[in-house]
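User: structure tokens for Plasmodesmata callose-binding protein 3, please.
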Amino acid sequence: MALFALAVLLLAFTGSSSATWCVCKEGSDAILQKTLDYACGAGADCNPLHQNGPCFQPNTVRAHCNYAVNSYFQRKGQAQGSCDFAGTATVTASDPSTGGCSYPASARIRKCLMSLPLRDQWMEKEESVVHDIHWLRKSLYLSSLFGRIGPICCCDQPGRE
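Assistant: Done. Predicted tokens:
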């Protein structure tokens, strides 16, 4: 089981090179504002875009649109078509994070790691598994703090991205 834990960790770290974000394409402010409004109304976490929020600056329609469509894309699990917005957005491998605003990039392998149970009936006698999960969580958390793999989120747990 320790080998499994090590494999998951290695995939999480190598997954950083395949991280993807969703950003708005070039367009008029009116079109980008419609995309922004749709993303925020359809499930994106737009709280960081509020005044005094960590992603309020730069205070441009394009910057806010980028954050909103990416939040929507990540919350939808990077599902096919969730970064289209009627042709106004596109997937990119370049991290659009700016200053104090970190854009989520949920690599699929670590997406649900934080929601793994610490105790389960198959783990009852495997204390090393519990230790490995704790170790993986701490390692991924520390890596996210230093920008190696982006923020860590939990599956199906709103507000934990």
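User: Anything notable?

Assistant: Confidence is low (pLDDT under 50) at residues 3-17, 107-114, 118-125, 142-161.
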